[in-house]
């Protein structure tokens, strides 16, 4: 497996631990629908939380969350709609981003961006 894939997996594992520590129930990881993948689907306070995890080894070019563009949002929303139908979920949905970046000492820092985008941002 490529180093960037290892880093991405580590970032997702950190994000799952972070969410669990903050009271989220993880429902599924890496949910796929057509060309889309949702990194983490969780539940908290009767909401379905769709979470995109973005990790970078540096923010020299862009912040991790800036990689979630309109095309990516459209894919995530499509996959989220499929998940809700497939698992007969009727709760309100929130879309979050978890950004993972190393600090100057190499320690990975998690930033949880709650309600990062709306489903209509995909249009």
TrEMBL record:
This protein's record includes keyword Nuclease: yes
Q: Molecular function terms in GO for this entry?
A: endonuclease activity; nucleic acid binding
- The answer on whether this UniProt entry bears the keyword Secreted reads no
Sorted keywords for this record are:
Endonuclease, Hydrolase, Nuclease
Record's Gene3D superfamilies? 3.40.1350.10
Q: From which domain of life does this come? A: Bacteria
Q: Which residues cross the membrane?
A: none
Q: Which family does it belong to?
A: Belongs to the UPF0102 family.
Q: Could you identify this protein by its name?
A: UPF0102 protein SAMN05421664_1611
Biological source species:
Chryseobacterium soldanellicola
